[in-house]
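#help-structures
NK: newbie question, is this the right format to request a structure? protein is Tripartite tricarboxylate transporter substrate binding protein
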Amino acid sequence: MKKRALLALGAWTLALFSGQTALAQSWPSKPIRLVVPFTPGGSTDILARTIGQKLSEAWGQPVLIDNVPGAGGSIGADKVAKAAPDGYTLLMGHIGTLAVTPSIYPHLPYDPVKSFAPVAWVARVPNVLVVHPSVPAHSVKELVALARQQPGRLNFGSGGNGSAAHIATEYLKLQSQTFMVHVPYRGTAPAVNDLIAGQLQLMFTGAPAVMPFVKSGQLRALAVSSPKRLPGLPDLPTVAESGLPALAGFEADQWYGVVAPAGTPREVVAKLNAQINASLNSPEIRARLLAEGAEATPNPPEVFGQLIVREIARWQPVVKAGRVRPE
C-alpha cells in the first residue's frame, strides 16, 4: 500500500513537473500585461516601456503597459497580486510599492513578500535633488542653510504620499534636521511640471524623470542620492559630499524590478529572468539607462527577493519619523 502511494506521488510529481516544463516552453503564447502602478511619464513608466519593448522584440508578443496609479502604487500592485499566476500579468515594482508602502498602509490587501514571486531586479536609479532656478541655493549645504533660515517656506513635490521621492526627502529632512513642506501629486510627471513652473521649490526624484530638464536649464541639479557619483554626471556631487557631518553616508536610491503573482511557475519566472537580464546586459539598453542616470542590475530572482526584504526593514523607521500617512 505504502509502495503504491509512493508510486502515485512520484507519478503526480512527474506530471506536474512535465506540465510546468511544457507551459514554460510554450510561454508566452499571447500578449503580456506589465502593470505600472503610477501615471505615465515617471521613472517607473520609462523603465517599464524600455524593458517591455525588448521583451516584445525577443518573443514576438506584445507587452502591454497598463498604468494603474493610486494609493502609493498599492492599487496597481494589488491588481497583479490577485491576477492568475501564469506569467501573463506582471508588475513593474519599485522601492515605494514593495518596500515603503507596507509601513504606511497597515492594512494593505497584499503582502509585498508573500503575494509576489520576484522575477528580476531591473535597475538602480539614483534620486537627483533638483531645485527651481529661482531658489538661491547651488549646493546641498546652501539648501540646508536656507531651509534652516526659513523653516516651512520651501515646498517639495513628489508623486504621492509614501512615494520614493517623498521618502527620500523625508530622509534628507530627518538627517539634516530641517522642515520643508511636502506637496503630494498623483504621479511624478505633474509634480515635475509644477516644479518647472515655479509652484514648487525642490524635488528629490529619479534621474530619468528630471535629467532632460536639468540639461535644458529648466531645473538645477544639486546632488545625487547614490554613494558614488553617476558616470553620466561626473560633475554632480553626492549628498554625502555636501560637507555636512549629518549627511555623511547618505544614500537614498530608488530601485525597480519585475514581480509576478505568487505561484507563477518557476520555469516561467526563470525564462522571464533570463530574457530581462539578457536585455539589461545588451550595450543598447545599458547605454540608454546610463543616459537616463540609471544603472542596470541583472541578478537572479532570489537576489531581488532578498533586496525587498532588507529595504522594508530599512525604511520603516524613516516612515515613522516623518509621520507619513496614507493619501
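mod (FA): yep, format's fine, and the C-alpha cells are attached above. Residues 2-26 form the longest helix (25 residues).
NK: thank you!
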